[in-house]
Amino acid sequence: MRDYRWLHEYCLNRFGSAKALEARLPQPRTDAELRQLPDDRYLSLIALRVFRAGLKHSLVDAKWPAFEEVFFGFDPEKVVLMGAEHLERLMQDARLIRHLGKLKSVPRNAQFVLDVEREKGSFGALIADWPVTDIVGLWKYLAKHGHQLGGLSAPRFLRMVGKDTFIPTDDMVAALKAQDVIDKAPTSQKDLAQVQAAFKQWHAESGRPLCQLSVMLAHTVNH
To answer: Cβ distance 110 to 81 under 8 Å?
Structure first.
């Protein structure tokens, strides 16, 4: 596994300047900002991630104002009361993406958000307080307690809300293989722990957030 200095030099050479590199890198939200984000926004982003999975993002995003309307602004207290008959009516609404399984996930995830709120005070408190040194543990928690948040959906949702995380995209997995960190896509706890350890080392060497290291690493794969 190469050190951060190599990663930085590679990306500088690829993009031509430090300014060009920095312009491509995401910036995570602070813990305070994550706590301030209301629970209805977390539920909206969970639902947006679920509906984006397997579909063109621009298609989903264009329809999202209608989703905000029919799901009461994603107020968890209101959404959790939506029963099967209500969801069946939504299946007749041409403004929406009419996928019953995904529509059913919204009130189920509303219950998840409410459960976390009762335990932690807010969903934002859970996200903010979870240490990035165990970010894969947060993926696991979201996949276990949420609905349709398995695979890459949990880390992609976290990136959407601004929680610092890496995402094992195809490019990043290829780069990690080239660095001899893993030899296959990381799905086992062992492989995920190895990836987490590699990012912990690069973070210690650079001070950069995981999301920036993730993007930089993905750019080391030649296309």
So the answer is: no
